[in-house]
Design brief:
The chain has 220 residues and is α+β, with helices and mostly antiparallel strands. The protein contains 5 helices and 12 strands. It has helices at residues 26-32, 39-53, 73-76, 200-206, 211-214, and strands at 13-14, 58-60, 84-85, 88-91, 97-99, 104-112, 119-128, 131-138, 153-154, 159-162, 175-181, 194-195. The longest helix is centred in the first third of the chain and has 15 residues, at 39-53.
C-alpha cells in the first residue's frame, strides 16, 4: 500500500498534463485565467477536476510529455527543457499519509527547496532477490524528514510521511511523486523526476513504470 486508497475499488481520476489537454493550451489558459505559475490557481484547477469527478485522488503521468514544467526555471532554464515525467503523480489532500510499498532502508533524504522542485524528499533502497531497486517519494511535508537516518530499516506498510502543502512541497498542488530507479547515478537525496526528450530513452531504461509494482487499472 502506497496511499490510503484501494485503487481496485475506490474511484480515482486519471489526470492529463500533456499538450493534448485542451485546458492547458496557451489560448485556453488566457481565456480561463489558468495561470500555472500561481500555485493556488493551479491547485484549484486540479482539485476542482477531482471534485467534479467525485474522487479523492488523481493519478497519472508516467512517461507523459508535459507542458506544466514551463512554469518553473528549474525545468526550463537549461539549454533543452525537461518535460518527460519519469514517475507517477498522486494528487490528494495535503496531510494524506504515504506508506512504503516494499521493505527497504533509507537511502537518503533532503529538502529540495526550489520553486517547482520536489521539496521534502525521501529515497528508499530495496533489495529484491539480490537486485537493488530505489523508490523516491517527493513533495512531502517537512516533518516527514524528522527522525530519519541513512540505513534506517523501513517495513512495507510503514508510514513514511505525508503529502505536503504548498509552498513547502516545492510549490505544487498537493501530490506525491512516486518514482522507481534501478541506478541512482551516484546521487543522494534527489534524482531527476523529469528529463529532456533527448534523454528519454536513457532515463526510461533506469526508471521503470511504477505501475508494474502498483497495478492500478487503466494506467498505461
Amino acid at each position: 500500500m502506497l496511499l490510503p486508497f484501494d485503487f481496485q475499488k475506490d474511484p480515482f481520476l486519471i489526470l492529463d498534463f500533456s499538450a493534448t489537454n485542451p485546458d492547458l493550451a496557451p489560448e485556453s489558459q488566457r481565456q480561463t485565467g489558468l495561470d500555472l505559475t500561481n500555485t493556488a490557481v493551479f491547485s484549484d484547477y486540479v482539485f476542482g477536476k477531482m471534485r467534479t469527478a467525485g474522487v479523492q485522488v488523481g493519478v497519472g503521468g508516467y512517461n507523459e510529455h508535459r507542458v506544466i514544467y514551463r512554469r518553473s526555471e528549474h525545468f526550463s532554464g537549461t539549454e533543452e527543457s525537461r518535460e518527460i515525467h519519469l514517475g507517477i503523480d498522486f494528487w490528494a489532500a495535503a496531510g494524506t499519509p504515504v506508506f512504503a510499498p516494499l521493505d527497504g532502508v533509507i537511502h537518503s533524504f533532503q529538502d529540495n527547496n526550489n520553486f517547482g522542485d520536489y521539496g521534502p524528499t525521501i529515497i528508499l533502497e530495496h533489495n529484491l532477490d539480490g537486485k537493488l531497486l530505489y523508490s523516491l517519494y517527493g513533495h512531502l511535508t517537512r516533518t516527514s524528514l524528522n527522525d530519519l537516518s541513512v540505513g534506517k530499516a523501513i517495513s512495507a506498510g510503514e508510514q513514511l510521511g505525508q503529502i505536503g502543502p504548498f509552498p513547502e512541497n516545492g510549490d505544487w498542488p498537493p501530490h506525491l511523486h512516486f518514482q522507481l530507479m534501478t541506478d541512482m547515478l551516484g546521487l543522494t537525496g534527489d534524482f531527476p523526476g523529469v528529463c529532456s526528450l533527448s534523454d528519454r530513452a536513457k532515463f526510461l531504461s533506469i526508471c521503470p513504470n511504477p505501475n508494474e509494482l502498483l497495478g492500478i487499472p487503466g494506467l498505461t
